[in-house]
Design goal:
The protein has 404 residues and is α/β, with parallel strands linked by helices. It contains 15 helices and eleven strands.
């Protein structure tokens, strides 16, 4: 397979379904579609798995390549589960009527409960709480489940926009008081515009999919050997707390969405970082003894300060266990989007480590392509270590591995 151009510098998410709702560090849709075009046999049923499906980019693009696919996805984040479900199942034929009902409610004087949750006054201005509560009440009155989930999905960006968190980071950081005070309240009109402008992008409906909200390792361990034809994913590049905090990004919208429309296990609201803590490499993840593949890591570990070694080892304990399971359950192709992160001033080549591991488990390298990350919320310089500036990830790699 020849190296291809995956820059897609002119690609804009706002031009397709993936731009209708914001989610951190999403894969670039045309890149995934390009590669899936090469490996999906459109004449036979193909099982495609994304074990960290996020906002569903890869799974959705698989349906764009072929209708003859069975999709499987897993993610520990209930917000990711909701977004992906809505993209795949679409909306019903009653959508225009339901939109009109929502608009009528929002433009009328109706009675509704003011929503409340711990620290709501810290994260939302009081007049914003009132208008967001009105939208919440209107959505909950929608009987059609497909349309109701779509309305929640369009609510996510409104909640984020009108929260007191800074837009320059995915972490929860309070804005300056002057910025909070001067923000105009266009909540109702913004939400109405969102549902009216975006619903046509959700008119496709795909039925052959299974989404699991839960721990990826637990899910994979229960899957039969060689069950999936293709695995396409972008796994964590490090523990979420210090790379991309998906949980912190998601928690405020989750507090606003009706629990009956979320897949929950009961622990998700224990604190604002619990989702990240339960992800691979998080503080709640444990491991026994040494990492079996420690020799692959050793050249990096010995350069990192002792205090940070444990964090790196904890992450890779989970990561290598994930790779072991994904090799076991995949019969043909592994497609992974990866980034090489820096810890304590030491750049860890996750791409190289992954290829070496997969090669030792019976997969051969078919293609590796590099792509510059064009638009980033995280600044290119993120911190200083030993008085030297540390760059954030500005390149990502897509590897295609084939089972020997």
């Amino acid at each position: 397979m020849l190296a291809r151009d995956i820059a897609y510098k002119n690609y804009k998410k706002r031009d397709d379904i993936h731009g209708t709702v914001l989610y951190p560090a999403v894969m670039v849709a045309p890149v995934q579609k390009d590669i899936l075009n090469d490996v999906i046999n459109k004449d036979i049923c193909t099982r495609v798995l994304d074990p960290f499906h996020g906002s569903g980019t890869a799974l959705y693009e698989a349906t764009e390549v072929s209708k003859n696919v069975e999709l499987y996805g897993c993610d520990i984040n209930p917000l990711a589960n909701l977004i992906t479900k809505v993209k795949l199942q679409g909306i019903s034929e009653r959508i225009e009527r339901d939109i009109n009902n929502i608009v009528d409610c929002l433009e009328s004087e109706i009675s509704f409960d003011i929503h409340n949750f711990p620290n709501i006054s810290k994260w939302f201005r009081q007049d914003f709480v009132i208008d967001l509560s009105k939208i919440r009440a209107a959505i909950m009155e929608t009987e059609d489940q497909k349309n109701r989930l779509f309305f929640w999905c369009m609510f996510i960006d409104i909640v984020k926009k009108y929260s007191n968190t800074r837009t320059s980071t995915y972490k929860l950081h309070i804005k300056k008081e002057i910025d909070i005070a001067r923000q105009e309240n266009n909540i109702i009109s913004d939400y109405i515009s969102s549902i009216r402008n975006n619903y046509k992008r959700y008119q496709k409906s795909f039925n052959s999919f299974t989404l699991i909200k839960g721990d990826t390792l637990t899910y994979l361990q229960a899957c039969p050997e060689n069950y999936f034809d293709i695995c396409i994913t972008s796994p964590p590049y490090g523990d979420n707390a210090t790379t991309v905090p998906y949980g912190q990004f998601s928690i405020l919208p989750l507090f606003w969405i009706d629990n009956k429309d979320l897949e929950l296990e009961g622990w998700e609201f224990e604190n604002y970082s619990i989702i990240d803590s339960r992800s691979i490499g998080g503080p709640l993840q444990t491991f026994q003894g040494e990492v079996k593949e420690f020799e692959l890591l050793s050249k990096y570990i010995k350069k990192i300060s002792f205090l940070k070694q444990k964090k790196v080892i904890r992450f890779f304990a989970g990561y290598f266990e994930f790779l072991e399971q994904i090799c076991r359950v995949t019969s043909s192709y592994l497609i992974m989007t990866l980034g090489n992160r820096t810890v304590d001033g030491v750049k860890i080549n996750l791409t190289e480590l992954t290829i070496q591991y997969l090669d030792s488990r019976g997969f051969s390298q078919k293609e590796v392509v590099k792509r510059e990350i064009i638009n980033k919320r995280i600044p290119k310089r993120v911190s200083n270590v030993r008085n030297r500036p540390v760059s954030s990830m500005n390149e990502e790699y897509v590897i295609v591995m084939e089972k020997k």
